[in-house]
Amino acid sequence: MQPFIANTDRAWFDFLSTRMEGGHVDEVNFWLPNATRPMKQMSPGEPVFFRLKSPDNCIAGHGFFAHFQVVPLEEAWELFGWRNGEATHPVPPPHRRLPGPGHSRRPSIGVSPSAAPPARPASPDRRWIR
């Protein structure tokens, strides 16, 4: 079993970090815009490490893969709410609101729920792995 390193942005991670109880969040949705398949074939329970993008460039948390599914944005919000990493329902950027011919007019995202997700290091200056 190879762990998967999922690149994520600081805003997603920081928001979820504010929702931790007892050092963790019970579940998060690591979502992928416009995804039609998972980033990697994974089995439930496989470890996922969350790597913050530049300028942090470090592993800042982890979780365990649950499953992957493509759902409309509205449904992802109904299923996960703030566990999507946003305080309120996200509005797709203008370039995603009106897809080209042959595409659904309802934006969809790939959802990859993760159990026991992001845990923040003891201090923002202390990184797990660089």
Report on the structure:
With 130 residues, the chain is an alpha+beta fold. Helix content is 15%, strand content 29%. The chain contains three helices and six strands, in the order βαββββααβ. It has helices at residues 10-17, 73-80, 94-97; strands at 4-8, 27-33, 47-52, 58-65, 69-72, 108-115. Strands 1, 2, 3, 4, 5 and 6 form a six-stranded mixed sheet that branches. Strand 3 (47-52) and strand 4 (58-65) form a beta hairpin.
List key phrases describing it.
single chain; 6-stranded mixed beta sheet; alpha+beta; disordered C terminus; 29% strand
Helix/strand order = EHEEEEHHE
| Fraction of helical residues | 10-25%
The helix-and-strand class reads: alpha+beta
Low-pLDDT segments, ≥5 res: 93-105, 120-124, 126-130
pLDDT averaged over residues: 75
Radius of gyration: 15 Å
Q: What does the largest sheet look like? A: 6 strands, mixed
Inertia-based shape:
globular
